[in-house]
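Quick question, first post here. What does this chain look like in 3D?
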Amino acid sequence: MSGSSAVPGHPVAVNSPTNVAPSTAPTVTLTVTSVADGRTIVTSDGKQVRLSGLTDPAPCWATVATGFLRNAVQGKTVWVSVEAEGTPRVARVQLTDTTDVSVLTISKGFGRVASYAAGRAELTKAETTAKQTAVGLWGDPCRGSDTTPKPTTSSPPPTSEPNDPGEPSTPAKPGEVYYKTCADARRAGAAPLFKGQPGYREGLDRHHTGVACWF
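> Answer (accepted):
Ran it through. Tokens below.
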């Protein structure tokens, strides 16, 4: 395959829930050149690859899922184990530290387990944990729904944002993009903020998913 190389028997770490044994399908090394949506990448051989085990992103969380996946894999080298040929191909995708990208996406709450993959324990375990901790699509505003729930009028809006950490421990450097609160980021049209982007900081990312100020 042009632009790829086989990776026979690459090592698998065991100290992370996102590190799982590779499939027995032939594995090739490719680079992620772009991200089409929350479960589909484009690799350096010019082909689309759909992450195995993920259902189609729903409207409530599709945009942020795409941003999360782009931040996680774009420009990086990955190991691709094709499970089904087609357009796009369906494959298990791992980063070179053996992180399974499908498990990572589900564990952060930016993907759901597809029905055909219900027997894959590593995926269902990641989804159960994401539900229990209400991260990503399992928290506000989606709360596990495909569409954004309409706001209720029975309870008053909060007087302060639950993820407002106040001032940073060290002042922002001159010229550095800084938002004191997520409300500030939204007013600037910058939300959501992805890790590595100007203005992102861990203090605004209350669930530590790499995505701040989603809602």
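The longest helix spans residues 121-133.
The CA atoms of residues 73 and 204 lie 22 Å apart.
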